Design the sequence.
C-alpha cells in the first residue's frame, strides 16, 4: 500500500485483490483498499502483521521482481533470443483468413482468431478478455470470462481504457474451467507469472498452521494453474475515461454509442457505426488523457506472455512474438489449421523498427522508486530459494521437529520444483548484427531477423 498505491504506481490490475486469501482487500474506485478494519491505517493487514501472509505484495507487478528480473524464473535456459523487447523465439507478422473475424478484429484479427480456433480445437475451455457487454457503458469494457464462439467474436477490438482482467479469475474457479486463455496488457500478464513462479517458502512461519499455509498457497498458485496460455497485448499506455466522456462525446460531439472501436496509428482513430473515422492527435491524447500510472510501466511488448501481439507499423496485420515453448506449440497448431497467413518480419521493417524504438523508450521512462519497487539500478534476477537447504533449517531453528517440517514443506510446496545450490541461467542470443551505439552516441537499429533465425513463424 505504501510503495505502490500511495506512491502512485498502482496499475489497477486487481491481482492483489483476487490473490488475497483472507478478504482483507477490495477493489474500490479502481484501486485496492483494505476494508477489514475501517478504523485502521490504510496499509493495515492483521493477518500479515500476525501470522504472516504477503501474498498480495508477492503478485504485485509494481514490486520487485519486475519483468526484467523474472527472466530466469520464467524462461530458465529456454530463450533462443533476448533483447530490448524481451525473450523471444520467433517474431513475424500475421493476419486471420476468416472474413468475419477480420471485419471486427483489431489490426490482423489474430487474438480473436486464435481464441476462436483454440476453443473449437478444445485447446481451451474459456478465455479471460475485456469486452463491452450489454450491461456496460459504451466504450467502457469490463472483464469477462467467455466460453462460446459468439462471446469470443463479440470481444474483438480494443478500447484503450483500463480493464482489470484479473478480477474475473475467481469466476474461472467457480465455473471450474481448467484450460483458460488469458488476454491482457503487460501489467496483467506479469501478475500471472508471479503467481506461477514466486517461491512459496515465504508462506512458512513460526505461528502458521498447515491449514492457513494451504489456503494461502491456493490463492498464490490456484488461478495461474488454470491458465493454458497467455496472450499479451503491446501497450504504451491507456487513457483516462475523460478522453471518452469529455473529449470525444462533449467536445467532438460523437455519441459514445456510435463508436465501434478505437485504434492508435500515430493518432487516435475513432471508428463510427456510419463508417466514418474521426481522429485525435496522439500527442494531445497522451498529454491530456494518459493515465499517470502507465508512466511506471517499462514493458511495452508483454515480455512475460506466451505470445505477444500488437498492430504497430502494419496495415491490417498483427506483429506476433512467440516467447515460450507453450506459445510455440499453440501457434504451430493454429497455423496448421489454415486459418491464418504469416509473413516474415524482414518484410515488415517499419514494424520491426517501431517495436525496438517503443520498447527502448518505455524501458527507459520508468521513474526510480523505492528499492522494493525494483526500479533502482542493479536489481538482481529473481531465483527461487534453495528450499531443501535453507527453509528446513529455518523451521528447525524455530523448534519444528522433522515430522512437522516435512508436513509444512509439503503444504507450502506441493509439487513445486525444489531447488538446491546456487542457480544461474544463460541469457539468450542478442539480435544478430546489432550495430549498437555509433560514434555520435546515437543507437542505430539492427536489421530485422532473417527467416532462419527466428524472423518467421515457428516451423
Sequence:
Amino acid at each position: 500500500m505504501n510503495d505502490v498505491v500511495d506512491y502512485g504506481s498502482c496499475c489497477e490490475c486487481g491481482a492483489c485483490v483476487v490473490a488475497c486469501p483472507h478478504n482483507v482487500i477490495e477493489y474500490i474506485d479502481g484501486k485496492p483498499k483494505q476494508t477489514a478494519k475501517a478504523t485502521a491505517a490504510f496499509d493495515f493487514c492483521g493477518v500479515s502483521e500476525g501470522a504472516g501472509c504477503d501474498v498480495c505484495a508477492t503478485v504485485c507487478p509494481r514490486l520487485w521482481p519486475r519483468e526484467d528480473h523474472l527472466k530466469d524464473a520464467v524462461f530458465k535456459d529456454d530463450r533462443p533470443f533476448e533483447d530490448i523487447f524481451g525473450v523471444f523465439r520467433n517474431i513475424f507478422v500475421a493476419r486471420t483468413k476468416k472474413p468475419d473475424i477480420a471485419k471486427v478484429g483489431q489490426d490482423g484479427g489474430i487474438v480473436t482468431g486464435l481464441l476462436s480456433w483454440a476453443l473449437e480445437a478444445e485447446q481451451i475451455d474459456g478465455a479471460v478478455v475485456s469486452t463491452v457487454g450489454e450491461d456496460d457503458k459504451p466504450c467502457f469494457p469490463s472483464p469477462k470470462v467467455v466460453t462460446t464462439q459468439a462471446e469470443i467474436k463479440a470481444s474483438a477490438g480494443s478500447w484503450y481504457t483500463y480493464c482489470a482482467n484479473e478480477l474475473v479469475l475467481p469466476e474461472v474457479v467457480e465455473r471450474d474451467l481448467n484450460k483458460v486463455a488469458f488476454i491482457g496488457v503487460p501489467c496483467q500478464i506479469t501478475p500471472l507469472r508471479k503467481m506461477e513462479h514466486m517461491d512459496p517458502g515465504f508462506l512458512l512461519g513460526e505461528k502458521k498452521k498447515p491449514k492457513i499455509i494451504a489456503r494461502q498457497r491456493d490463492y498464490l498458485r490456484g488461478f495461474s494453474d488454470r491458465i493454458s496460455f497467455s496472450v499479451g497485448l503491446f501497450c504504451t499506455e491507456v487513457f483516462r475515461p475523460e478522453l471518452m466522456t469529455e473529449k470525444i462525446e462533449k467536445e467532438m460531439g460523437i455519441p459514445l454509442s456510435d463508436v465501434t472501436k478505437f485504434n492508435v496509428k500515430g493518432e487516435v482513430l475513432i471508428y463510427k457505426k456510419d463508417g466514418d473515422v474521426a481522429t485525435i492527435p496522439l500527442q494531445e491524447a497522451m498529454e491530456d488523457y494518459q493515465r499517470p500510472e502507465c508512466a511506471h510501466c517499462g514493458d511495452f511488448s508483454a515480455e512475460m506472455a506466451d505470445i505477444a501481439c500488437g498492430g504497430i507499423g502494419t496495415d491490417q496485420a498483427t506483429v506476433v512474438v512467440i516467447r515460450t515453448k507453450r506459445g510455440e506449440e499453440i501457434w504451430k497448431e493454429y497455423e496448421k489449421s489454415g486459418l491464418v497467413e504469416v509473413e516474415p518480419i524482414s518484410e515488415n521493417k517499419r514494424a520491426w523498427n517501431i517495436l525496438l524504438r517503443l520498447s527502448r523508450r518505455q524501458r527507459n521512462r520508468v521513474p526510480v522508486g523505492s528499492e522494493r519497487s525494483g526500479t533502482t539500478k542493479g536489481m538482481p534476477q529473481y531465483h527461487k530459494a534453495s528450499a531443501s537447504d535453507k527453509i528446513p533449517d529455518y523451521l528447525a531453528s524455530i523448534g519444528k521437529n522433522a515430522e512437522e517440517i516435512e508436513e509444512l514443506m509439503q503444504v507450502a510446496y506441493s509439487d513445486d520444483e525444489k531447488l538446491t545450490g546456487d542457480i544461474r541461467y544463460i541469457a539468450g542470443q542478442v539480435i544478430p548484427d546489432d550495430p549498437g551505439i555509433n560514434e555520435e552516441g546515437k543507437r542505430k537499429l539492427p536489421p530485422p531477423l532473417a527467416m532462419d533465425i527466428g524472423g518467421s513463424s515457428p516451423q
Q: What stands out?
A: The longest strand covers residues 90-96. The chain has one domain: 1-238+291-383+424-459.
